[in-house]
């Protein structure tokens, strides 16, 4: 498989993907194929399902996740 944007090669690696639900963000370590040229990420279907599940869980029961920082807004 090649990158659909730049035709670069893809390498499989673990990436930190950010999932957002409203003002809450969650970081998930997932496997992706990453373009060596433009760094576009391609996720396998299983990972997409997992990220969607995390998003739902973040909305509903965020107390099960360990906070690692806070998000601030500059007024
Ligand atoms: Zn690319």
Question: Could you name the ranges where pLDDT drops below 50 across 5 or more consecutive residues?
Answer: none
Small-molecule binders: zinc ion
Beta-strand proportion: 25-35%
Structural class: alpha+beta
CATH topology of the domain at 10-61: Ubiquitin-like (UB roll)
Q: Largest sheet, order of strands side by side? A: 1-2-3
Mean pLDDT: 93
How many helical stretches?
1
CATH C-level class of the domain at 10-61: Alpha Beta
Shape: elongated
What's the order of the H and E elements? EEEH
Gap from first CA to last CA? 44 Å
From the alpha-carbon coordinates, what is the Rg to the nearest angstrom?
15 Å
Can you name the CATH architecture of the domain at 10-61? Roll
Describe this structure in words.
This protein is α+β, with helices and mostly antiparallel strands. The protein has a domain at 10-61: Ubiquitin-like (UB roll), CATH 3.10.20. It is built from one helix and three strands, in the order E-E-E-H. The chain has a three-stranded antiparallel β-sheet, covered by helices on one side. A hairpin with a 5-residue loop joins strand 2 (24-35) and strand 3. The termini are far apart. Bound molecules: zinc ion. The site of zinc ion (ZN) has 8 residues, from loops.
């Amino acid at each position: 498989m090649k990158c659909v944007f730049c035709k670069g090669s893809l390498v499989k690696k673990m990436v930190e993907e950010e999932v957002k639900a409203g003002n809450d963000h969650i970081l998930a370590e997932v496997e992706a194929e990453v373009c060596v040229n433009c760094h576009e990420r391609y996720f396998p279907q299983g990972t997409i399902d997992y990220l969607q599940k995390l998003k739902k869980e973040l909305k509903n029961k965020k107390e099960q996740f360990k906070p690692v920082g806070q998000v601030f807004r500059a007024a």
